[in-house]
Amino acid sequence: MKQKIKTLLSHYQPMQIFQQQNKKGLVTINARFRQQVRLWGLMSLLLTIFISDLLATKYSLVGRVGVFAWYASFFCLIVIALKNIWILILTSLKNKSFFTLAGLLILISLIVINLTKPQNISGETTQEVNCALSYFQTKDWGYHDSCFLGYPVRQYLIPALPSLIWGRNQLTLNLGGSLYFLTAVIIFSQSLLEYFRFSQKNDLITAIILTSLLHFHYLNHFLFHLFEQSNFPLSLSLLTIGLLFKFLKQKKPRWLVLIGISFQYLVFSYTPSLAFLGLGLVGLGYLLTKHQNKLNKFISLSIIVITLMSLCLSLSFRRDIRLLGNDNNTPITFIQNLNQIGQHLLFSNQGQSFYSPIIVFPLLITVLIPLTLVLGWQAACIAGWVCLTVIVATQAKGYSFYSLDFRIHRALVVAPTVLTLLHLLLQKINLQKKLSRSFLIVTLLLLTLSGLKYQTDYIKNRPISQHLAFSLWLKQQLPDFQTQQKLYFINPKTKFISLRDELQYFFPQLILTNKTIAPSQTNCTSSQPGLYLVHSSHVCYDILSQPDEKKEVIAYYTDFQGQQLLLLQQN
Questions:
Q1: Which of 151, 193, 301, 345 would you call most buried, defined as having the most Cβ atoms within 10 angstroms of its Cβ?
Q2: For residue 328, which of 407, 389, 385 has the smallest C-alpha distance?
Q3: Could you give the CA distance from residue 85 to residue 88 in angstroms, rounded to a whole number?
Q4: CA 220 to chain centre
Q5: 198 neighbors 93 (Cβ within 8 angstroms)
Q6: How far apart are CA 37 and CA 254, in angstroms?
Q7: Contact at 8 Å (CB) between 103 and 180?
Q8: Counting Cβ atoms within 10 Å, is residue 569 exposed (0-12), middle (13-18) or buried (19+)?
Q9: How far apart, in whole angstroms, are the C-alpha atoms of residue 17 and residue 113?
């Protein structure tokens, strides 16, 4: 009897009950705990970014907290991207299908190959990154400021990170300009495979979507060539769509919070990003009505409110939203431009094409078919948004009312959405298995080979940047000044007239000042001490090239056309 009681009581001892938990139960408890840590950690970052926005208007130092949260949020995305590419590798090996992985590696390889090519540098990227770096000398680190034509400093914090860590050079400059895209395209591609379930058909379709990116002229121009801010809207759209598919598949609230973080990036990014932000907010509002989970409802509503308030705050200091100007403010102009847009998208008759000829009709059909409600009213609304965005992008004044073939680069933001619609359409193909596979393989090969040719033909025809070559040469000739020095450019009306764009990034200690008269043409002397650059076409070039007690000739530079610049020190 005594033994039976002991046996009975043993079943109610807490320690033994804990020890008898199976491994699956323990893993479940640990997994739930980790999920909660991830969720509320990400929510804390999002709230820190937003609250810093509110408080930094009154307390500048709070902006630094916001900058740290901004970097921490992107670090989380990098970790997710690395995890996703590892999952993609393992899944491809398991299923013995490597099409998406190959397409992803092609895009990444093209970025790596082009990082340090001497033709691939932008005078705008150097200004943007230098602007962000210079704001680290201010109280709020630029959290509530704008620069370069009125764009928010915050969008340049990530591109400036490599230069901040490893110093200023072409590699870190261009790597920074590609960080949004590299992170986004990995998350986007793996999310599509996960949502539609990994199969050889889905693998082929996702690879087709990735290689189609090579056919957009302005992606080649702004990403692989210039690594400039105009690729940010496309990259952030890829990121947001990828995170959306993660949520639709897993229904985990942390993906909603990450979508909220991507909305913050869109709020403070290059102007066309606001178009996709509008679509994203409407889409999240639609999901809000479908949520069964109260936590997901609460997070979605919170994100919408936070995003709208952040947008209003950004409008108080950004100066980049310019819809109307003298060139586009009449109904007649609007109708004429609308007609030109249609013709250009069909026939590329306004100059530089928006995309390669091989994907013109597939993309146009991809937009037109959903308008017939074949894919449902949701897809029809998205296709309508695409059409409206293209119209606004080409009709708006922006910084300048450029020619139509260049204004249309602002519509690059629609590319991920159109390609996602294309993915949905290709999923509808119900041919015989072997016939469907053959069709998709042929399509993929055609798009990949023609896309690579389209991309490489563009890059190889770009001239080597003389500004880059000269900036690197000048950095070798001059010491690293501890204080700012003035550099006077004599007779700057040459191809070096915009030299300051690159020089301010590579040599921020130099203050470049253009002078067209001094030293005077009568005695070829100057009373202002400092460094001087004199072009060989200047009337005083021969006299100034002779050293004397008042000046020291430092070096000569010969450009690619045989013309010389003289660098001297005036005492």
A1: 193
A2: 407
A3: 5
A4: 13
A5: no
A6: 10
A7: no
A8: middle
A9: 59
Residue that is written with structure tokens 């041919």 in the block: 431
Residue 400 is encoded by which pair of tokens?
A: 């300048």
3-state secondary structure of 238: helix
Cα–Cα distance for residue pair 261/47, rounded to 1 Å: 10
For residue 411, the 8-state DSSP code is: G
pLDDT along the chain (571 residues), means of 10: 50 45 59 83 94 90 94 97 96 94 97 95 94 92 88 95 95 97 97 92 95 96 94 97 96 95 96 95 92 88 96 87 74 82 86 91 93 88 95 84 86 96 86 77 95 92 89 85 82 76 90 66 69 84 79 85 83 77
- The torsion defined by the Cα of 381, 384, 389 and 391, in degrees rounded to 10, comes to -160
Helices (H), 428-506: 433-460, 466-477, 499-506
**Buried b / exposed e across 257-289, counting CB within 10 Å, b at 16+?**
bbbbbbbbbbbbbbbbbbbbbebbbebbeebbe
Residue 486: strand, helix, or coil: strand
d(Cα 380, Cα 457) in Å, to the nearest integer?
A: 36
* Cα–Cα distance for residue pair 136/332, rounded to 1 Å: 47
Q: Which contiguous run of DSSP H or E holds residue 488?
A: strand 485-490
Give the Å distances, CA to CA, from 548 to 363, 476, 545, 553.
67, 24, 9, 9
DSSP 566: E
Rounded Cα distance, 238 and 219, in Å: 13
pTM flag (> 0.85): yes
- Of 317, 224, 318, 312, the residue nearest 271 (C-alpha): 318
- The full length of the chain comes to 571
State the pLDDT at residue 479: 80
CB 243 within 8 A of CB 381: no
User: Strand ranges (DSSP E) for 199-271?
Assistant: none
Question: Cα separation of 203 and 516, whole Å?
Answer: 61
